[in-house]
Amino acid sequence: MGNAIRYLAHEAIHHHHAHGSTTSTAGVSALAHDLNQFELTSEVPEGLSQLVVSSKKAQANWYTKLLQTWQEAIPAPETPEQVSALVIQTLKHHKKDDVEGFLKFYGLPLQDNPQVESPDPVVINPTSVPEGVKFELHTLPVDAKAIPDGDTITVYVSASDPREAPSVPKAVQVAASQRAKARASKDYPKADALHKTIIEAGYRVLTGSNDEDILAKKYRVRLSGIDCPESKMPYGQEAKQELVKLVQGKCLIIHVYTEDRYGRLVGDIHCNGKFVQEVMLKKGCAWHYAAYDKRPELIKWENAARAKQVGLWASPNPQKPWEWRKNKRDGNR
């Protein structure tokens, strides 16, 4: 149980290693997978007893604690160092041999590793994450059909991602397993009904690059700091197509700040080293949404596009999308 190790989906690599691998990144996914399985089955992975001194009953207690700690961590741990720190902090009152054996089982850094000095379970590098970011998403490749306009996108994150794995509902896990069996036996009506249950819970089973099934969590995301013309406005379709061109088929990194009143996450999107909002503003595909985001670089990029009269700024007096929406609301009354 839990012996398969899958690399994170956003790395677009799918290999398998035995527990105890020296590949620490694989160990992160392995632990996330095993926590997920433990929540579903209450069973600890085979082979762990060879590296620790405590009983399987005690081991089950560790997984219970780790599952709760991981679910409560904001943001969730992602790197081997962060996960190792979480394990050490959670199991700090347990035997040293058990903790070190547990880390070794997953190929995670040991306690005397100089990279694991902080008692905090999660460490954010302030030089790489903007102020105000609550957590980070690493998505699966984006489908063009999931982009309705220039500033909104629907993304999916693999349920095996370290942040997601511990919080996947049991009912979703069971439905995904039963769906796979139904498809294998060619009982497609049952498989479709099970997939409907999965979708209603906010998940979906996607097909990976190697034709494997990937259970994934759905998120709707509003790009922070910009407002693009609506689809029916002048330049609305051009803005949408620019976003499609930027992210279609790509895995994204999303820094999430908050959630809006429509249930969408609001955040910055990065794709292949590009800051998507920067590209949209510089190409004249968006307005700086100053009412909600005061970052000076955003207005700077908008002004540069205005000066060059590119994109929507080729028009002498483009209508502001927030005014267009207000007029539309007023007209419907």
Task: Describe this protein's structure.
The protein is built from ten helices and nine strands. The chain has helices spanning 24-41, 56-72, 80-90, 96-105, 170-184, 188-200, 236-247, 276-282, 296-308, 321-331, and strands at residues 135-138, 152-158, 203-207, 213-223, 226-227, 253-259, 265-271, 274-275, 287-288. The strands form two sheets. Strands 1, 2, 3, 4, 6, 7 and 8 form a seven-stranded mixed sheet that branches. Residues 1-18 and 112-127 have low confidence and may be disordered.
In brief, what are we looking at here?
The protein has 333 residues and is an alpha+beta fold.
Entry keywords:
two-stranded antiparallel ribbon, 9 strands, endonuclease, seven-stranded mixed beta sheet, endonuclease activity, 2 domains, OB fold (Dihydrolipoamide Acetyltransferase, E2P), disordered N terminus, elongated, alpha+beta, Staphylococal_nuclease_OB-fold, single chain, hydrolase, 333 residues
Which helices and strands, and how do they pair?
Blueprint: H1 24-41, H2 56-72, H3 80-90, H4 96-105, E1 135-138, E2 152-158, H5 170-184, H6 188-200, E3 203-207, E4 213-223, E5 226-227, H7 236-247, E6 253-259, E7 265-271, E8 274-275, H8 276-282, E9 287-288, H9 296-308, H10 321-331
Parallel strand pairs: 4-7
Antiparallel strand pairs: 1-6, 2-4, 3-4, 5-9, 6-7, 7-8
Helix pairs in contact: 1-2, 5-6, 8-9
**Structure annotation, total helices:** 10
The CATH class label of the largest domain is: Mainly Beta
Question: Low-confidence spans: pLDDT under 50, at least 5 residues?
Answer: 1-18, 112-127
| Percent in helix | 25-40%
